[in-house]
Amino acid sequence: MQTYPTGYAESHRIAEQIFREILPRHGMAVREEQIALCHEVLDTLYNKEISLCEAGVGIGKTLAYLVACILWQMHRPSQLKMPVAISTSSVALQDAILNEYLPDLSAVLLAEGIITAPITAVVRKGKERFVCDARLAERQAKAISKGSRQKGSLRMAENVLDLDHIPGLSRYDRCRICVPQSCPRDCFLRLDCRYQQYLRDSMKPDIQICNHNYLLANASHRLEERPLLLRQYQALVVDEAHKLPDAARQMYTETLSAQDMDDLCSLLQQAHFKGLSKRLRTVFLTLSISCAPSFAMPKRKISIPFSLTPFRQAAIADSINLLQYIGSQPDMPYYLQYRLAEAESLLRLFLLDVPTRILYLEFSADGQLTFCAASNRVPQLLRSALWNTREPTILTSGTLTAAGDFDHTEQLLGLAAYAPLRHFRAESPFNYRKKCLLYIPARRAAAVPENQYLADQIVRLTVACHGHALVLFTSYRQMRNVYDALGGRLTFPVFQAGRGQNRSIQQFKQSGNGVLFAAGSCWEGIDFPGDMVSLLIIAKLPFPIPDPVSNYERQQYPNLRDYINAEVIPEMQKKLRQGFGRAIRTEQDSCVVAILDERAGIGGKYHDAALAALPTCPII
Fold first, then answer.
1. Cβ(206)–Cβ(73) under 8 Å?
2. 3-state secondary structure string, 41-79?
3. Mean pLDDT in each 10-residue stretch from start to end of the chain (620 residues)?
């Protein structure tokens, strides 16, 4: 006879009651997919397993896993109770969990007698995201000539600890008032420090919320037996889990930028090592010159594989020797010794043929150099950092599968050979067969330039739909070029959402019948409910952009076709589904989705792959 852990049956019973009786009394619809997901999360928690949970748009996955985690914690023995950690990719979701989902859910469960005390939670972030009171006071004393808006932002920082919640704060001021990497022990505000109080308070809540980078940094501390960033947790939920491999790739890439080099020289000068600072600047300048590309630089960020030439070898060796010499000075402060050793260690990788590293040079749009050493063992590192701890873990997202298959995600996450591994899929409850039309136009005439063709199609479609259109691009450059090719032919308000331009998105939402040109982050995580978007245009299939890391991955396959099928197409399919998800956000929405990429058209090279990524809906 099978036995279940304490509280298992009761947790499942209460979950049914919450979703079928209690939440409907408070205005929420019953969604079978949401209830099934909650039961899956409960099973994963009680069995101490790992589950990949794909939940389509509109299921309400956040509420499903929050209810499951709360019920599981309720029935844990008091001596075993520790927090649950929730990791997300976006600040917006963190804020929504902390300020919307949890307070509302807590109020309902308290009123219904399910819980006896409010649910507590805290958002954990890196110290550079918080205000240092001592540095703020110092900055305010120097900011006499600041404009009224910037002064207002600095005054707001006196009462708001989280820098992400201070509007109008310049990047320069943010760097000058954030908590430093190491706080001086003799700080005159240490006893009254808001950041130190935040750290003390963050040890108490039931739920800890963080981003993927912070989660990985905490795992790194644990492996290196350093003090943990998060309080020890008993279960982990990774929301927006499709973004975890990108965060891991970033986390496991060591970098040394031109700005890092300049900062290091400035710190040496401030510490009264002016002669050594000047020598280091000269050596770094020679190093930068040795790495300058032999071709004309485009006005955008590029990455190129690193190759060791005699000039570069000599420049790197000179830099390493000088960094060692400076670090060996008897009166060199510890924090500078650490920074010097970090730079030396990174540059040394570029002299050695390290088989676990992918070496490349990155140049910003204005030509600034960054040395990058990426790990080629990210899946293995993720496994040792997160999965080998054996804490129950739920990884959830709307796009964990490619054409219904979890294999690609398992490989990226280091779970390909993990056992036991659970899988759960719940399709969106939205009726795409009735609410959505997919439009794929005929091939363009060879004589028509691509951008002109896209502009003509966009004009024709938006006029037919009277605006209300979101146009997604895979390139900001093409977005601008197509916008220019419109030539003012649209009578609707047209907006371009550049990098970090949230104002354009808000203006579009308020316009009533506008057209928004967008790229980058607008492919996911932004809601346009109602008739705000009744036409979604996808200009190009979102294939990943080649870079030195993907070039390395390509070399691991016997031929290009195998690489494209195993890596490139699954990435495209997941990103395409993210973009498609902007079309319908509620049961009442309806939308036309147009894919203008010829490769997705009938007879196109990726027609079948594109359709396999999308829900079934009529094609016109």
1. yes
2. HHHHHHHCCEEEEEECCCCCHHHHHHHHHHHHHHCCCHH
3. 75 97 94 97 96 95 97 87 94 92 96 94 92 89 67 88 88 88 79 89 92 96 92 95 96 95 92 94 95 81 93 96 95 91 96 92 92 96 93 96 94 93 95 94 83 94 94 94 92 86 84 92 82 94 94 95 96 95 88 95 93 92
